[in-house]
Amino acid sequence: QKEVEQDPGPLSVPEGAIVSLNCTYSNSAFQYFMWYRQYSRKGPELLMYTYSSGNKEDGRFTAQVDKSSKYISLFIRDSQPSDSATYLCAMSVNDYKLSFGAGTTVTVRA
Amino acid sequence: DTAVSQTPKYLVTQMGNDKSIKCEQNLGHDTMYWYKQDSKKFLKIMFSYNNKELIINETVPNRFSPKSPDKAHLNLHINSLELGDSAVYFCASSLSPAKNIQYFGAGTRLSVL
Fold first, then answer.
1. N or C: where does chain A have the smaller number of CB atoms within 10 Å of the terminal CB?
2. Does B100 sit within 8 Å of A96, measured CB to CB?
3. What is the DSSP string of A42-94?
4. In A, which residues are within 8 Å of B90 by CB distance?
5. What is the mean pLDDT of residues B32-56?
6. Contact A102 B41 (CB under 8 A)
7. pLDDT band at B38 (very low <50, low <70, confident <90, very high)
């Protein structure tokens, strides 16, 4: 079993829809939870990070962490074609390593 | 101002050659990393340096040698390139291992012919 599981998709939604992405994990020691967006042929761009449990909102993006269920989510409201990308979850204990999910490819149709 | 910059962006070379990729960060971070992203987009850690000291060396062939002249730079030298080395290599940095929020460069796309 992988340490971080993420459905690779692909996920296709119409413009304006809510995009819902999630990851599950097995290591209960994870404390930092991150979401990265990667456009084709570009580097991963940090979207949001959360420390421990809870929700965090930034504009159209909301990140949620449920440590009891070992489950994290990213919601994108009012999705735009420019949101079409691969979204990677990543998580870390207080050490040097990030454990990444496989990434979910999202297409927002105009 | 690019926070984490890598050069070159593209590298096309023949099997058996030696090549280097350079990385610089201007974020004042102590920790830097090299990742390899394969064709399936999975990011795999290769090395990590904290304050010029090697911390992580994942199962990477010793043809790959990182060098950190100072904490703002982490270069990657690859000897005797093989076809299987073709991938995208990303540099990243974080403030510290305790706050391991990593920022990535744009990547170097290496093609070995």
1. N
2. yes
3. S--EEEEEEESSEEEEETTEEEEEETTTTEEEEEESS--GGG-EEEEEEEE-S
4. 43-44
5. 89
6. yes
7. confident
